[in-house]
Amino acid sequence: MVAAALVPGALAAALAGSVAEMSTDLQTLPTGPATVAVDPDRTPAVRVPAPVIVMRSISKVYGQGDVEVHALRNVSLTIERGDYVAIMGASGSGKSTLMNILGCLDEPTTGRYRLAGADVSRLEDNDVADIRNRRIGFIFQSFNLIARTSALVNVEMPLVYGGMKRALRRERAIASLTRVGLGNRLDHHPNQLSGGQQQRVAIARAIVTNPAMILADEPTGALDSGSTGEVLGIFDELNIEGRTVVVITHEDEVAAHAKRVIRLRDGEIVSDDRQAPVRGLPPQVNPAHLTTPRLLELTS
Amino acid sequence: MNLESIRMAMRGIVANRMRSALTMLGILIGVGAVIILVAVGAGSAAKSRQSLAALGSNTLTVSAGGFGQGNRGGTQSRNLQINDADVTAINDKTQAPDVTDVVPIVNGGGSVTASLNGSSATVGQFLGTTPNYSSVRNAPVQAGAFLTADDLANHASVAVVGTTVAKNLLGATADPNSIVGTNVQFGNHTITIIGVLKAKGSNGFQDQDDIAILPMSTVRDSYTGNTGTINQLIVQASNANTTGAAQAEISSVLQAHHKGATANSFRVLNQAALLQTANASNRTFTVLLGSVAAISLLVGGIGVMNIMLVTVTERTREIGIRKAIGARTGAILGQFLTEAVLLSLLGGILGIASGYAGSHFQIVGVKPVIQTYSVILAIGVALAVGLFFGIYPASRAAKLRPIDALRYE
User: In this complex, do B322 and A157 lie within 8 Å of one another by their Cβ atoms?
Assistant: First the structure.
């Protein structure tokens, strides 16, 4: 009951947080025209938030000489705040490499990458760790929860590395788990949870730091169709709340939920289709099913 | 963050209970062994020091008959006896300036039987001496009085006995002091007991309380005959540093007094020298025991490193996850280093407990004496072992690239 009571507050805090981040990002906004996307449908009086992701001519080369493999060739990509992007491609298309670079797990060979206003292509290991901690929420195909550790402790972990006080982070972890419908499974260990539940714990862990971007790598690859529906539903909701979601997938079902679908082949972007506007609802969400006044407000 | 590292490390240790327990066992045995073996060394040192200190550290024991190469020298050296004139000469400040006191001792016979009211017992040491025995041998009375100069001059039939003699005659439960004033039959003569010596316990060779002390004149009259010979001299040097000088002076006085005497004709035992030798050999003994134990501590430390390497390999994926969600290099290093240090520290604490428990038992006849320094040293070494053997595995974990660690199967 206590946990349930916390939820609306946590959501409000999350939204307030992302608004605050937007304004700081505006101050550090680069002046080049390429990095500011102006929506023509909006009046010019509205301040336009900086894109979450700006990639410029990113290339990644593995090996040298004869065994040189170009995993990414000159990829440029801008992702708006609040967008829901699916990156698709067959295996070997470079989508995993792109995901690793997006998630600051790997460095591009050439090119520049700005994440939420910060240039991450030239940072030290510990600074990159801080970026991952504060700005990116990871969701993996194999869940990647820490075994023999309760759901609550798993979700708390990013806050531990962020240096948050114990009582506060516990409160936020509980709110986050409640958000994904696991408020009654706080003390369960990963091996006591179903695949869908484990992935929901991972989602709770990804959103607990209130990151600029949620980055999911084949999030439904290890799930049955029921759990897949649940997880995709949560992604839709997170996006409606204003979070930027980037999903790497090869499943059309997953891509159908995204507002924008980018296809990769041989390390290059071959198509970039918008299925729904950035500042609208994800395509699979039926406005009639929205109950929260706040969400209805967004749709009008 | 530090508290958090400890929490995470505890989770890691608890997650693998069996493995952690076995690793700790290595350190436990090491630390326990260091503490117990050093305690045994210290115990045996204390024991021998005690028995030598009972003799007095600035006293020399002089007896006739050499040892070593002198024995083959012929009959004359064996016939040499210490006599009353020697006592006077050694007491002379001009001949032996470093000597402060001389106590002659005459053995009253090998096995003198004491009897009182029907109970009887053989007395371990039955000797005649002078009143200064009490101060030189550090043998005060706990009841009654020691022999006086008058007793010596009057050839008085009086004796001071040890508590063992008193108990043998009165019964083990009786108050030994109540023997004062009774007339005890020693051999063929009746002697009045005037005092009971303070109990000294065993010196490891004999019961020092199984003793009866009479005036030297009385013993000569009644038991040995008036030959004027003295079995032993106990000489007190002015202090512990002059025993060497006193030893040389005594030797030259005796050689001057006895025709044909050589340096080997008399045996002069220097207690201080004995004590030093005993201390040195005890130290060697303790160091040896301690180093054997230290080796087992080292082996325990290697066990910690081994397990930590296994742990890091086994948890590579976990390390990858932690790094992906924002753990800095230092946080990972801290977590695994804390885990290693906690393992050896917990093992060390259990080792101290078992060391204390083990020291309550007698080991090879020695009562171990726990040395605070060995406890501090052992726990310090256990900590250092954890740090030293933990650093390599922990830095290996910290250096993993998140992308490689996440891919690890």
Answer: yes
Q: Which of B1, B325, B406 sits opposite A157 (nearest CB)?
A: B325
Tell me the chain B residues in contact with residue A126 when contact means C-beta distances shorter than 8 Å.
328-330
Looking at the structure, tell me whether residues B221 and B308 fall in a common domain: no
Tell me the C-alpha distance between A20 and A156, whole Å: 23
Contact A105 B321 (CB under 8 A): no
A149 vs B: CB within 8 A: yes
B229 plus B281 within the same structural domain: no
Mean pLDDT per segment of 10 residues, for chain A of length 300 residues? 41 43 40 43 54 92 87 93 93 89 91 88 86 92 89 94 92 93 92 93 94 92 89 91 92 93 94 91 77 49
| B152, two tokens | 């010596």
- Minimal Cα distance from B4: which residue of A? A160
Domain count, chain B: 2
B295 belongs to a structural domain: yes
Question: Is A146 within 8 Å of B321 when comparing Cβ atoms?
Answer: yes
Q: Which residue of B has its CA nearest to A156?
A: B325
Q: Which of A148, A164, A191 to mutate to test the interface with B (most CBs of B within 10 A)?
A: A148
Q: What span, in angstroms and rounded, lies between the C-alpha atoms of B73 and B78? A: 9
Q: Would you call A58 helix, strand, or coil by DSSP?
A: strand
Chain B: give the shortest CA distance to residue A47, in Å: 31
- Determine what percent of chain A falls in helix, strand and coil, rounding each to the nearest 5: 40, 20, 40
CATH number, span A2-299: 3.40.50.300
Residues of chain B contacting A153 with CB distance shorter than 8 Å: 11
Complex ipTM more than 0.90, yes or no: no
Determine the structural domain holding residue B18 and report its residue range: 2-51+277-407
Distance in angstroms (rounded) separating the CA atoms of residues A216 and A235: 10
Of the three residues B188, B220, B237, the one that is the final residue of a domain is B237
The domain limits of chain A are: 2-299
Nearest 10 degrees: Cα torsion A88, A93, A94, A99: 20
Q: What is the CA B320 to chain-centroid distance, rounded?
A: 57
| pLDDT value, residue A5 | 41
**Interface residue B1 vs chain A (CB under 8 A):** yes
Per the domain annotation, does B41 fall within a domain? yes
Is A214 touching B (CB cutoff 8 A)? no
Partners of B212 in the β-ladder: B126, B161
Comparing CA positions, the residue from B82, B92, B105 lying closest to residue B234 is B105
The pLDDT of residue A153:
93
Compute the count of residue pairs across chains A and B with CB atoms less than 8 Å apart: 59
DSSP annotation of B223 reads I
Query: Which residues face B113 on adjacent strands?
Result: B122
Is B150 inside any structural domain? Answer: yes
Treating both helix axes as pointing N-terminal to C-terminal, what angle do B329-358 and A125-135 enclose, rounded to 10 degrees? 100
Q: What is the pLDDT of residues A79-98, one digit of tens each?
A: 999 999 999 998 889 888 99
Type of residue found at B400: L
Of B221, B239, B248, B257, the C-alpha closest to B87 is B257
> How far apart are the CA of A40 and the nearest CA of chain B, in angstroms?
37
Does the pTM surpass 0.80? The reply is: no
